[in-house]
Each structure stands twice: as structure tokens, then as C-alpha cells.
Write a structure and sequence with these properties.
83% helix; single chain; mainly alpha; 0% strand
Length: 114
């Protein structure tokens, strides 16, 4: 289980670092997903900062297994993906919510096997 946990954390950290960095950069491609559901650019950049910091927390959780920081980072990202799915639902764009749903499932697995 420990190896599976670390592999999932590593994958999630990579995904959220890339996602957060693309939102922080402010490029049209990086912000296109949030613009589609009506999120303002400044808020999308804040979400990107949260994603990137939480991804660093996941990396910390790999290095220091059982750390509180790793657990908090996982819960923060779990909540962020739940809000992302809700936001897609409100914008009637549930087809584009699949990545958030997939990441939510992976984060749930990490929380269960931790």
C-alpha cells in the first residue's frame, strides 16, 4: 500500500503543479477552462496558487509519510475538485468536469489508503 500511495501522490503532485502553474501564468490556454465556466481570471490565478502550494504539500507528504501537511494538502485539493465539479454543474458544462471528477476519485483513494 505504501508504494501505491506514493505513486498516486507523485502523479497528483505533478498534475496539480502543472495545472496550478498554467493558471498562474495567465495565458489564454491556461485560463480557458476556468473562463468556460465563468470564473474570473484573478480568481483562477488564486486557484492556481492554491493548487501549486498543495502540490508541494503532496510532495512533502511523499517524503515524510504520515505528515499532517501531506494530509491537509490532500484534503484541500479534494475540496477544490469538489468545488470544481459543482462549478461545472452550475455552468451546465458537466462534460468538461470529467478531469476534476477523476482527480477527486484519486484523491479519495489516497485519503482512504493513507
Amino acid at each position: 500500500m505504501h508504494l501505491t500511495h506514493n505513486i498516486l501522490l507523485g502523479f497528483l503532485a505533478l498534475v496539480f503543479l502543472v495545472s496550478g502553474a498554467s493558471k498562474i501564468s495567465g495565458t489564454p490556454k491556461g485560463l480557458s477552462g476556468t473562463r468556460d465556466v465563468g470564473i474570473k481570471d484573478w480568481l483562477a490565478r488564486c486557484i492556481g496558487v492554491v493548487e501549486a502550494i498543495a502540490a508541494l504539500g503532496l510532495i512533502y507528504g511523499i517524503r515524510y509519510t504520515g505528515s499532517f501537511i501531506g494530509w491537509v494538502a490532500t484534503v484541500v485539493l479534494w475540496c477544490a475538485m469538489g468545488v470544481a465539479i459543482w462549478t461545472h454543474s452550475r455552468a451546465n458544462k458537466m462534460k468538461t468536469a470529467f478531469p476534476a471528477g477523476f482527480l477527486l476519485v484519486l484523491l479519495t483513494i489516497v485519503l482512504v489508503i493513507a
